[in-house]
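Weekly modeling sync, notes
Attendees: S.R. (lead), two postdocs, one rotation student

Agenda item 3: backlog of single-chain predictions. S.R. asked that every request posted to the team notebook include the full sequence so nobody has to chase files. The rotation student volunteered to paste the first one in as an example of the format we agreed on. Action items at the bottom.

Example entry:
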Amino acid sequence: MQKHTFSFYLGVGSLLLVGLLGLIQPLAVHAAGQTTSKAYEVIQFGGHKTIVREVSFDTTSVSGMEALNLSGLNVVTKDSSFGPYVCSIEGVGDCTGAAPYYWAYYNWNTTSSAWVSSAVGAGSATVSDGAGEGWVYLSFSFIGDPVLPSLQRAKAVPAAIAWLQAQQDTS
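Predicted structure, as returned to the notebook:
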């Protein structure tokens, strides 16, 4: 009989989990019976360093700026005549305008299954349950599409981490 290691089972379990995530989308419910809405903040800091934050809110929608602030990340904004804009996320970027970079704001388009540049600023954008919001630190001379993971992959990250944490031996 072949003996399998913990790493083997962890690998198999991870693959099964990622496969099932596309089929199962659990609904979080409060004790009071209120449904919690969830959205996903996908932030790319340049050089392909990307983080994902699942955010929850008890309303049907929030603004894009509110969703980013719910991520728990250190976000610095500045007001303009067009509304607030993001200067810095987790210390990347500045509000002086001296850097040739900016935080570009994208939304996940469920029809085309692609990230699209937001038609409005994050302060005016509406984020509802299941939405994907992308933030990419780009050069002003950047041409092309952002290199962000698909929303399905982004959603798998928090769920996989939660599953792995639940599998930890607490004794």
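Discussion: group reviewed the output briefly. The CA atoms of residues 69 and 75 lie 7 Å apart.
Action items: rotation student to repeat for the remaining queue; S.R. to check formatting next week.
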